[in-house]
Design a protein that fits this description.
about 400 residues; alpha/beta; six-stranded mixed β-sheet; three-stranded antiparallel β-sheet; 15 helices
Length: about 400
């Protein structure tokens, strides 16, 4: 029974259709036409297509923002309008609609309150997400002053604040630099490995190729191609052979052998690196040299609560810190405050030589009561009380003499 539930699709589209009508109720635009689709748990699914192909309309129907004209959609086996599933969905729209006068901390705290997270958990997730998206230095600024790329980063953080089981990303890398793009792709891969389901809608085909397990290409409201990235990209009519460096004579012989078999060598060249890989190497080198930047920062990994390892690691580190603190020396005052019966090391070593010197001195007369006529000298030790003398009036006159005289 549990196996059946585990294999149940997270997203189902059954003959899903949407027709937009004009003011008079006449059909004008067939946005989605009998779409059949299933997305499994833990799958990173790419939804592709040109502008107007029905991608965004499909996403809005999956979120319950639009009602289908015909057919049905199911999320976790329930209709998208069911409020019970809303807390399990994270959504990053194509444009980040944020309260421009709130800073990053306040923005994430607000969304955390919408999901009814307690104060401690909100603060913990907020700190981790801000660190993850590289906005630590800009977290105190109002999000209305952010660039588009920085707004996309905080938009990703708000989509992850509830640790969703289904994450829907609509053009997540728009406006991001290559470092930010790589960070988001790494987050998506990590979520997929953890068993989260991700729907990625993007026009940047290289990003989809890097992270998606399966891809659907839509056109005219219909699914025109569906399959794994490898299945869709593999060219069965071309064979590619990769070897180490060959000399020109050997290449000529290979060409001759291929020609004798009735085929031909289409090209012989050296493989090139991807521009993204080169860019990341250059930026990584600059970061290792600790060059300063005022923009978004590059970070590693994802938040602990997204990887599911936050609680155990924090508890272990807390226990280790307490054990370590128990082994460190404390002052006598701290030991007395805790009522410790064990000997406690003093914070400052005792000066036995100074104690011996003080003990060898003759006892001095203590100051008398307030009405006493004697007082101790401030300059040197005394052995007998000194009679109190009248103050020198000439000294007093000099002290009160005006400065301008």
């Amino acid at each position: 029974m549990s196996d059946t539930r585990r294999l149940e699709p997270v997203v189902q589209c059954i003959a899903l259709s949407k027709v937009f009508q004009d003011f008079w109720g006449r059909d004008r635009v067939l946005a989605v036409d009998k779409l059949d689709l299933e997305i499994s748990p833990g799958e990173i699914f790419g939804l592709l297509g040109p502008n107007g192909s029905g991608k965004t309309t499909t996403i809005k129907m999956l979120l319950g923002l639009l009602y289908p004209t015909s057919g049905a959609a199911r999320i976790f086996g329930r209709p998208p309008t069911d409020t019970m599933i809303k807390s399990r969905i994270g959504f990053m729209p194509e444009e980040s609609y944020l309260y421009r006068y709130l800073n990053a901390y306040e923005t994430l705290d607000y969304y955390g309150r919408l999901f009814k997270l307690d104060g401690h958990e909100r603060r913990r997730r907020t700190e981790q997400l801000i660190e993850m998206v590289g906005l630590k230095r800009a977290a105190g600024r109002a999000v209305g002053t952010y660039s588009k790329g920085m707004a996309r980063r905080i938009g990703l953080a708000q989509a992850l604040i509830n640790d969703p089981d289904l994450l829907i990303l609509d053009e997540p890398t728009t406006g991001l630099d290559p470092v930010g793009t790589r960070q988001i792709k790494d987050v998506i891969k990590t979520l997929g490995r953890r068993g989260k389901t991700v729907i990625l809608c993007s026009h940047l085909l290289a990003d989809v190729e890097d992270v998606c397990d399966r891809v659907a290409i839509m056109y005219g409201g219909r699914c025109q191609a569906l399959g794994t990235v490898r299945e869709l990209l593999q060219r069965q009519d071309i064979t590619q052979i990769t070897t180490r460096l060959l000399d020109p004579a050997l290449i000529g012989r290979i060409r001759q052998i291929v020609a004798e078999s009735g085929s031909e060598v289409l090209s012989v060249d050296h493989p090139t690196d991807r521009l993204e890989a080169l860019f990341l190497r250059v930026v990584g080198q600059a970061q290792r040299e600790r060059l300063q930047t005022s923009g978004a920062e590059s970070t590693l990994g994802v938040s602990q609560f997204l990887t599911g390892s936050g609680g155990e690691g924090e508890d272990a580190s807390l226990v280790e810190s307490l054990v370590k603190a128990g082994k460190e020396p404390v002052t006598d005052r701290e030991g007395a405050r805790r009522g410790s019966e064990e000997p406690v090391e003093a914070a400052v070593p005792l000066r036995t030589d100074l104690i011996a010197a003080l003990a060898a001195e003759k006892p001095t007369s203590p100051p008398g009561p307030p009405g006493d006529k004697t007082k101790p000298s401030m300059d040197e030790p005394i052995e007998a009380p000194i009679p109190q003398e009248r103050p020198d009036e000439s000294v007093l006159k000099r002290l009160v003499k005006p400065d301008d005289e």
